[in-house]
Design brief:
Layout lengths: L1 H5 L3 H19 L2 H17 L8 H25 L25 H4 L1 H7 L4 H12 L4 H8 L3 H15 L10 H17 L2 H5 L2 E10 L11 E2 L1 H15 L5 E7 L2 E8 L2 E11 L2 E8 L14
Parallel strand pairs: 1-6
Antiparallel strand pairs: 1-2, 3-4, 4-5, 5-6
Length: 297
């Protein structure tokens, strides 16, 4: 065992770690669980025999994918009993070096995309991500998920049927997003419903995830008027006077993080198209905010 680990330099792992984290996070929608999976893969890699590890990258990607599939299978039961909408754990991407693939993989990091992935079975999710997001060949994917290449092609086709037509791109220049969020923040702070309606798309949807631990809407809220009233009502009832809001890039998208006493209290992520906000995701479940950086002191 010592011979195996002695010939396995840490650099071989750290070189592929960004890819491993990127796969695990997109599979699980959880930064904390992704870190755990990557760490477990490292332990297994260190303890494996040289016969098993012919390629560091192939071995580690296989372990991370299979661990993620197993984790998803157990998580599905929990998510069926989850209180209110389930949203992925937000990551502030400019502070997370592991998401160094964010430019190339921006779409697959977005909240909208990760929410769509919830429609897929764990195996469908793995095949879809490995092929479409990470550009693995069918032969590689077949070995990772222990299916034939033909079966992987069928799984991918089925996955695309489930989510293909639903995929939408939300694009705004950084300058557009900056201006729009400034207007949104000013209107929300001032209690200006007209100002909010001016920046919200008519068919906007707002999702909020409190996980039954803090107050949140138990169903998605649709329509500009209803969303504006929800935002202003929630601000009056639940926002403490000492809350500090910081602009942030969250999941590669425009967003804000709210802090109280330096600790993250809420994250908001925005889908923006042109000059309107199309979707708002609000994560207030404290368990999902632990991976966010602390600030606001």
């Amino acid at each position: 065992m010592e011979t195996a680990t002695a010939t396995r330099p840490l650099e071989a792992f750290t070189g592929v770690r960004p890819l491993l984290y990127s796969i695990a996070y997109r599979m699980l929608g959880s930064a904390m669980e992704a870190e755990d999976v990557v760490q477990e893969a490292y332990v297994r890699w260190r303890e494996a025999s040289d016969t098993d590890v012919r390629s560091h990258r192939a071995y580690l990607v296989t372990i991370v994918t299979r661990l993620s599939i197993n984790q998803l299978r157990s998580a599905r039961v929990q998510r069926e009993t989850y209180v209110g909408p389930w949203l992925p754990e937000p990551v502030v991407t400019e502070h997370v070096p592991e998401v160094s693939w964010r430019v190339e993989l921006a779409e697959s990091l977005s909240m909208a995309f990760l929410v769509l992935l919830e429609r897929l079975s764990p195996i469908e999710r793995a095949v879809f991500l490995l092929h479409d997001a990470f550009e693995f060949e069918y032969a590689e994917i077949a070995g990772i998920v222990e299916k034939s290449e033909a079966n992987c092609r069928q799984i991918l086709a089925r996955a695309k049927q489930h989510i293909g037509a639903q995929r939408a791109r939300f694009e705004a220049t950084p300058e557009q997003a900056e201006r729009l969020l400034d207007r949104f923040t000013r209107a929300a702070t001032a209690g200006d419903i007209g100002g909010l309606l001016a920046v919200l798309a008519e068919d906007i949807t707002l999702w909020s995830d409190g996980g039954g631990k803090v107050a949140a809407a138990l169903k998605p809220i649709h329509g500009a008027d209803q969303v504006a009233r929800f935002i202003l009502g929630a601000r009056r009832k639940f926002v403490p006077a000492d809350q500090v809001v910081r602009r942030a890039e969250v999941n590669g998208q425009p967003g804000v993080v709210a802090y109280v006493g330096g600790k993250p209290r809420a994250a908001m992520v925005f889908d923006i198209l042109g000059n309107r906000i199309q979707t708002i995701y609000i994560i207030v479940n404290p368990d999902k905010l632990r991976a966010l950086p602390e600030t606001g002191h």
